[in-house]
Amino acid sequence: MWHIIQTSTPQLLEAGFKYTIPIAIISFVIGLIIALFTALIRLSSKRGAFLMLKAIFRFYVWLFRSTPLLVQLFIVYFGLPYLKIKGIFPNGIQLNPVIAGIITFSLNTGAYCSETIRASILSIPEGQWEAAYSIGMTKSVVLRRIILPQAIRISLPPLANSFISLVKDTSLAASITIVEMFEVSQQIAAQNYQPLIMYSLVAVYYAVFCTVLTWLQGYLEKVTSRYVTTTR
């Protein structure tokens, strides 16, 4: 068993640092940008044609929260090549597996995180908006300097949980031929016929990665809450 662990560990860690962690980080950053934009659009009080845009983003959030992530990966990687549009995509939309994975993970993360950010913004008392307006601040300035800094602190724990979940969800990328940690463990298990050891080993490494992220989450919570007075 120890021989298997020693020979497998370098391959698993290489896949983890080459694919698992980079895909998770890139997807989460893009997903946060999508989430912030989506939340702000849905919270906007503008009317007219803007209502159609809000409906589109509401549909996007509903769609990605209502369908399994694995199905979304399959649609983007295996399904889009069959979406042939004459003059634009005559051979369908064919994506590199890593790009397909990042696109899917980003859109999925954006849908979930947009609800977190939206709820965090809504949790800020309305009086703060009114107080800022009373001293001549514009809506964009109030949002940037008063509302969003507080919303970030409130949303940090659930957003960190989303990132930790995303790290684990990258194991699904093996289904679209990305050779990340779980895929490597499957390949090694097929060679040494020790699936219990290999799957347990890769589970340990996922747990290590997520534990480090949990510690980082705790540190960020302390930093963002250093000026907040708490009563116990």
Automatic annotation (TrEMBL):
One Gene Ontology term of the molecular function aspect: L-cystine transmembrane transporter activity
Transmembrane segments: 20-41, 62-80, 196-216
Topology of this chain in the membrane: Multi-pass membrane protein
GO terms under cellular component: ATP-binding cassette (ABC) transporter complex
Protein's UniProt name: ABC transporter, permease protein
Compartments where found: Cell membrane
Ranges where the ABC transmembrane type-1 domain occurs: 17-214
Keyword set, alphabetical order: Amino-acid transport, Cell membrane, Membrane, Transmembrane, Transmembrane helix, Transport
Lineage, uppermost ranks: Bacteria, Bacillati, Bacillota, Bacilli, Lactobacillales
Family to which the UniProt record says this protein belongs: Belongs to the binding-protein-dependent transport system permease family.
Organism: Lentilactobacillus hilgardii (strain ATCC 8290 / DSM 20176 / CCUG 30140 / JCM 1155 / KCTC 3500 / NBRC 15886 / NCIMB 8040 / NRRL B-1843 / 9)
Keyword Membrane recorded: yes
Chief subcellular location: membrane
Stored InterPro entries: AA_ABC_transptr_permease_3TM, ArtM/GltK/GlnP/TcyL/YhdX-like, MetI-like, MetI-like_sf
